[in-house]
Task: structure prediction
Amino acid sequence: MKNHTPSSQIKRSGFTLVETVIAMGIITIMITAFLAAFGPAVQGIRKSMSSKEANRLASTLEYELSVLRADETATHPTAFAKAYSWIQGSSGNNNDDFVLIYQYRGDPDSVRNDGTLNPYTENDGIPGKDYVLQSVARRLGDAAVQEELAPRVVEGRVFFVRMRQLIFENGALKLTDEADFEKIIDPTEPRAATTSHTDYPEAVIAFQAEFYALKSSIYSYVKNSFNLTDDNNDGHPDATGKPVFTRNLGVRR
Result:
């Protein structure tokens, strides 16, 4: 004879459909509340990182234009003369004058004569101990660029910087005319082009720096494939598109 267990005494496992729906509803409410509270904070961190990188690039350029390194004294008598040359040549047709900003792995135990670090070329290494990331602004024709834009040495993106002089007109700063982009002109009337830093009469050169991200950080691309061709006439190199950001800066004597 079979014994029948009353249904009230049967032990059930799992959840009923109603219990599952209620649990899912509670979880959804919690997730919504979490995103509402922390979503803006996450977005703020992303913006902060982007702003941080932009500030790093601008600061690297400003610093480089304000110093005269030991190996540059033969070509530039002063830091202002160097800055004059860099600004003037950055939007020209001579690739060696193109200004680049990037980070590379530097060997903290090996310092060059110009004060920068020799590249750290080992495959491994501990960041902060065996190598440090050094942010530099260099002209493409500099001898160190090929060493620093090598695989496992360069870190992150390489940026091209085009600098254009700003002048005051009607109480506001404006870019010089397109025909004058490769010149440094006297800001006062009649705004004649100067031939060297000695002819420039003002104490400050104001300029707009446009920062473009290159498609490749490999030296062979930067040296041989990148140019300022603008076939679509949008005012920016076809190889880069629009700048990732612009910054108004100035150099002082």
